[in-house]
Amino acid sequence: MDEHQPLRPRVAVVFGGRSSEHAISCVTAGSVLRAIDRDRFDVVPVGIARDGRWVLVPDDPDRLAITAGRLPAVDGQGPTVVLAADPTARRLVVTDPGEIPRTLGQVDVVLPLLHGPYGEDGTIQGLLELAGVRYVGSGVLSSAVGMDKHYMKLVLAGHGLPVCPYVVVRPYEWKSDPDAVRESVAAIGWPVFVKPARGGSSIGISKVDEPEGLDRAIELAHEHDPKVVVEAAVPGREIEVGVVEEPDGTVHASVPGEIRVVSGHEFYDFEAKYLEEGTVALDVPADVPPPVMERARELALAAFRALGCEGLARVDFFLLESGELVVNEVNTMPGFTPTSMFPRLWAATGVAYPELLQRLLETALRRPTGLR
Description:
This protein is an alpha+beta fold. It folds into 3 domains: 10-135, Rossmann fold, CATH 3.40.50.20; 146-163 and 235-366, D-amino Acid Aminotransferase, Chain A, domain 1; 166-232, Dna Ligase, domain 1, CATH 3.30.1490. The chain has 11 helices and 18 strands. The radius of gyration is 21 Å and the shape is globular.
């Protein structure tokens, strides 16, 4: 290499993780590794195994695809990697057993393609802040709030944004007085959706049409999170809007899209999202009147700002028959395959997948760590 040629920014693409969304994180990473501009960025793929170990993994997107219904995973067999908790170094270090630790060099920015707890919830963001490494996406607090459906709804409602009726089921409440929980849920009406409070990808979610199904649904959600949120089933269309922060700090909303379950599923569950083709339709842009489209974009920006988000987010709504929009949730690290809703929304807005990825990285490179 010409010694006068400027070095490319080094991007650590981090994926996998300890949550139940491990496989979906791997799928997202495969798409990103395939699309990232190697003339613009130096890429280091880092996988997090299900037990939490960080390892170097091959730079091979095909290993991270869903094939014949098989979900990809980080097997933890590569060299162990640690991020130096030294903001003056910002280095990845390989620590193979029995060998002298070796450095992979300085990391300029991390792209944390992690979904769910131990990644999307502010934990890795805190680690990166301590290490002084820039990263794509929201900071510690907004990531944590966006991950926890309970506190997300509190913050949104506190900013005057419309949310659906809900009940929070804490573990001690369910253990000490389950009848009181059942009464609280019945008060918001049937049917309801029972969800892990800090989960995603529709894992552990049940639709419950009558009281007899509530206990089993709560126990299923408890397999993924000790805290559960029960939401009133809102009779409306599912509308989603992507939000992106530009390198200059301005924030833009995409055109809205709509998710329609067309066969085989009562709602947009994990299998419909990732494993079974032809069960859902993604309409981008959504077939809604112009005033609804503009209102969705306005509310998406308002929700992004209410949570203090940075970089990117996908804001999900229910569109009622009256034309009113209700905020369902804010996803601070949405699915990022080319066929996922977030990139498709931006493609319809005029930003292609590779360009979208580059914008997010450039925004992160210009943003300092620490209080801001």
